[in-house]
Amino acid sequence: MNSEHVTVVTQLYDAFARGDVPAVIATFDAQIDWREAEGYAYADGNPYIGPDAVLHGVFGRLMADFDGFTVTPHEFLPTPDGVVTLGRYTGTNKSTGRPLDAQFAHVWRVHAGKIRRFQQYTDTAQFVAVARA
Q1: Domain locations in the chain as residue ranges
Q2: Yes or no: is domain 3-131 CATH 3.10.450.50?
Q3: Cα dihedral sign for 75, 109, 123, 53?
Q4: Span 74-105, pLDDT tens digits
């Protein structure tokens, strides 16, 4: 078990929960390769390369579309070069008022104390359903 990898990823989730976007971005490698789940609304920019691409292409859009959006990890599964995290997304779609409660799996690759790669898996159908009026 690589506790350094778990620590880096845990720090990211903690910063996200506090709304500390600069601290989230500080965990990223300068050339982070970020991939949203296929069929997900924000996958249209895959792969997002670099922190600015993730910030504007993913995080900014999520905050524009959801009130109270949270990412709650429940389990951390260390891998030789990173961590797989299982958890849930929650929030309320701003345009429809519909609640979201979707499971996710995140695959994180960590190198030299920074997140180098991210792959998301989630219930994309639920995101589509809560966005429909």
Answers
A1: 3-131
A2: yes
A3: positive
A4: 999 999 999 999 999 999 999 999 999 999 99
